[in-house]
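User: Reviewer 2 asked us to show a designed sequence for the structure in our supplementary figure. I'm pasting the structure tokens here. Could you produce the per-position amino acids so we can include them in the response letter?
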């Protein structure tokens, strides 16, 4: 049986933006909190959706991954 993931909601976008900023602030390093937040996000919406959300953030900011 395949797991049904949620569609991204406001809280998912907030967590993704905070994780992204945390990576920027720590020069690519990470902490336990960012790791757990990323893991939670993937469990909630699925890895494919997280990757799509990251692509959307890059498009908004006009940056490339």
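Assistant: Here is a per-position design you can include in the supplement:
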């Amino acid at each position: 049986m395949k797991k049904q993931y949620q569609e991204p909601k406001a809280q998912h976008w907030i967590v993704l933006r905070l994780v992204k900023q945390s990576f920027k602030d720590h020069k690519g390093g990470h902490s336990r909190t960012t790791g757990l937040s990323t893991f939670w996000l993937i469990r909630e919406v699925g890895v494919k959706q997280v990757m799509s959300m990251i692509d959307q953030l890059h498009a908004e900011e006009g940056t490339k991954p």
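For the response letter, you might also mention the following. The chain has a mean pLDDT of 88. The chain is about 70% helix and 0% strand.
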